[in-house]
Amino acid sequence: MKLDRPDDGAAFHLAEVGVPADPTAPWAPVWDGISESSLAHHLDLHGYDDMADDNTAASVLRYTQQDEQSKVWLVAVRGPRPDGTPDGSVAGVRLIASEPGPDGPSADDVLACAYASAPLLDNTHLLEVILAQVRPAHRRQGIEAAMVDLFEELARRFDRTTLLAWVSHRGALADDATPSDQSIADPTGSIRIRRDHHDVALLLSRGYGFAQAERHSVQPLPVPTEVLRAAADPTRATAAGYEVVQWTGLTPDEYLDDFAVLAGAMSTDPPLGDVDWRPESYDAERVRRMETRASIDITFATTAVRHRASGRVVGMTQVGVVQRKPEVAFQWSTIVLQDHRGHGLGMLLKAANARLLHEEFPDVRRVHTWNADENAYMLNVNIALGYRQESIDGCWQRVVA
């Protein structure tokens, strides 16, 4: 299927963006087109730009970091593919250089962007994708379907057997009056979405299954003092032999080994529904590398609990504050090791970190988080701390080999 070579009158063609040789050098207009497409998509979908990939400098820099993941930025470009343009080495479609040049498209000619990554250290059977972020005026003109088809080709080229696609189903939820044959439920059976929604119908037609529903929730900050006073009370944890430690920025060296254990538990302990996600292995070096790369455009606020008898950190929660949008933060991991549960540490961690955020980052006004719909414990903690459901994100899975 020649996805990149439509007829001369075609409205668009697909292309891959080349990995920049120097991420600090000026970038081509295609990168501005990626930022603008993502921004327009999220403003239309959510009404705000919190999740948009609009930090071009950070996106370019991350794209050069290909040692732990093979990454591909794809774009839909206005009009047919120009004659004589080179093929890319990854997706098999037109290659657009990251550096400025006379043959690249303008930012306005980029109608949509999409992203795929193939893990290289763990879960090497997977290709994770984010569906096309399309400028609203160009939706439902074939771009989304062409991108989904190209993901299957990418999976073959990366020798991956399973595709995972993440989709925000804002506006696709089925109500109580929707007949069961017109909706589809996630594996837990508690979230149903309409089969006739555009993205849902497209994925179903390409053989994807609804593997898990995640609740996207938002916590307004600051949390009321009366809520935090009770939730962040350390009395119970202290009596059980735990103490709270906190910091901002990168994790201190003394805790990196413990954080490696916690990071590994994050890949096995949270509910996974039908998602074929397999255990990950971490060491101190990998934790440091992950945090350092993230700090390109976020600053961490971290609260951990240490077991006094062993001296080990056995639980933590971490939030990343967006440097370019200081009113926005994103929840990263929250985990308590299994042998240390039952002491209220999850609530304590989240509440104490909300207080830390308010004290150290007073401009933050909201925290975004995602939790599996079947993760009742964490959802109840979040609700108690003021989180409200914003949307449902679906994980769609397809085995391709």
The amount of beta strand, in percent, is 25-35%
By CATH reckoning, the class of the largest domain would read: Alpha Beta
On the 0 to 100 scale, the average pLDDT is 95
Unreliable runs: 1-7
Roughly how many Å is the radius of gyration? 22 Å
Helix % is 25-40%
Into how many domains do the coordinates divide? Answer: 2
**Helix count from the secondary structure assignment:** 10
Distance between the termini: 18 Å
| Main pleated-sheet profile | 13 strands, mixed
CATH topology of the largest domain: Aminopeptidase
Shape, please? Answer: globular
Give the ordered list of helices and strands: EHHEEEEHEEEHEHHEHHEEEHEHE
Describe this structure in words.
- The protein contains 10 helices and 15 strands.
- It has 401 residues and is of the alpha+beta class.
- It folds into 2 domains: 12-160, Aminopeptidase (3-Layer(aba) Sandwich), CATH 3.40.630; 222-364, Aminopeptidase.
- The strands form 2 sheets. The protein has a 13-stranded mixed beta sheet with strand order 3-1-2-4-5-6-15-9-14-13-12-11-10, sandwiched between helices.
- A hairpin with a 6-residue loop joins strand 7 and strand 8.
- Helix 7 packs across helix 8 (284-294).
